[in-house]
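Tokens for chain A. Residues wanted.
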């Protein structure tokens, strides 16, 4: 299969600020900055963080602060959220935070929005307090944000300062078909979480494209797919490195979440057949192998689904191996 279809595809990074076993969140932030700086040098388009709470192995809970840290340590790469979980926040606060970021780092900040809590129900209740049982209007909250960012809001009684009049791209994130319809209706770019929720990917992007309404923000549908990537010099080494992410997803399935573990030679000692099938289903859109192997599989993926941009997320324990994977992956798009 010809590989020319990767030539014009933007490639980006999703970083969950994964905490490694034996290390701290402070260590994670340093390696994230190192990875972001390398990604910038390698031509990656954007570097996003996702809002999660009450997860020992994920340190991206204060997402806007991390975005500022990474943007301040880089020069040109776009930095943003994949995403901010809007039910956890008043739109005004989000507008002010991202207005501040966009004022500090002009033309570099992305605002990806999700409707999930990004955590468990008990933690969601702790975040939302008395608002926990209130109806959350994700579409209306997006409209509120768009209004707060607009220059025409200058005469309103509630204004986002800073934020008003700034060009901050809003993305709709999704792992189901509901988000696809919303992104299409509002004429916004759509990022799908195929790295952990592959089931509705094909259906969702079809709904998005078929129902897309051009807007002032976007003339044609734009799909970004997030996928798992573990690249190494050989298929065998990549498979070994991928044992870390497989154990992480096993923890999600069994409810025994842990810090990211080092790679092991034989993952089969950690799961039974049903657990293995469940993990492999969640990791269906994963690209694991040498550069040659991933290029062939990724080209087929892009040709099949016609995605406009690929976002990679890589849960690799060894930082040097992670940097090497990031470099191999970027090389596929040259």
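Reply:
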């Amino acid at each position: 299969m010809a590989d020319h279809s990767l030539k014009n595809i933007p490639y980006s990074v999703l970083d969950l600020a994964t905490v490694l076993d034996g290390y701290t969140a402070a260590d994670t932030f340093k390696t994230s900055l190192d990875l972001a700086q390398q990604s910038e040098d390698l031509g990656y388009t954007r570097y996003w963080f996702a809002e999660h709470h009450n997860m020992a192995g994920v340190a991206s809970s204060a997402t806007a602060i991390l975005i500022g840290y990474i943007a301040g340590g880089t020069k040109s790469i776009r930095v943003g959220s994949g995403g901010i979980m809007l039910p956890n926040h008043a739109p005004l606060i989000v507008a002010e935070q991202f207005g501040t970021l966009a004022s500090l780092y002009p033309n570099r900040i992305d605002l990806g929005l999700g409707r999930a809590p990004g955590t468990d129900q008990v933690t969601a209740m702790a975040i939302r307090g008395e608002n926990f049982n209130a109806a959350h209007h994700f579409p209306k909250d997006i409209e509120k944000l768009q209004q707060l960012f607009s220059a025409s809001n200058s005469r309103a009684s509630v204004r986002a300062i800073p934020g008003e009049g700034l060009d901050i791209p809003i993305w709709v994130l999704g792992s189901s078909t509901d988000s696809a319809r919303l992104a299409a209706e509002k004429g916004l770019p759509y990022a799908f979480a195929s790295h952990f929720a592959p089931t509705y990917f094909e259906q969702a992007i079809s709904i998005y494209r078929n129902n897309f309404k051009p807007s002032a923000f976007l003339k044609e549908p734009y799909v970004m797919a997030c996928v798992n990537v573990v690249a190494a010099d050989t298929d065998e080494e990549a498979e070994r490195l991928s044992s870390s992410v497989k154990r992480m997803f096993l923890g999600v399935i069994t409810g025994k979440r842990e810090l990211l573990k080092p790679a092991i030679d034989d993952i089969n000692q950690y799961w039974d057949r049903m657990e293995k099938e469940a993990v492999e289903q969640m990791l269906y859109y994963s690209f694991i192998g040498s550069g040659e192997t991933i290029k062939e599989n990724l080209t087929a993926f892009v040709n099949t689904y016609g995605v406009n941009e690929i976002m990679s997320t890589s849960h690799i324990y060894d930082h040097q191996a992670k940097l090497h994977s990031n470099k191999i992956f970027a090389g596929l798009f040259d």
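Residues 4-229+305-331 form a domain with the TIM Barrel fold (CATH 3.20.20.30). The longest strand covers residues 223-231.
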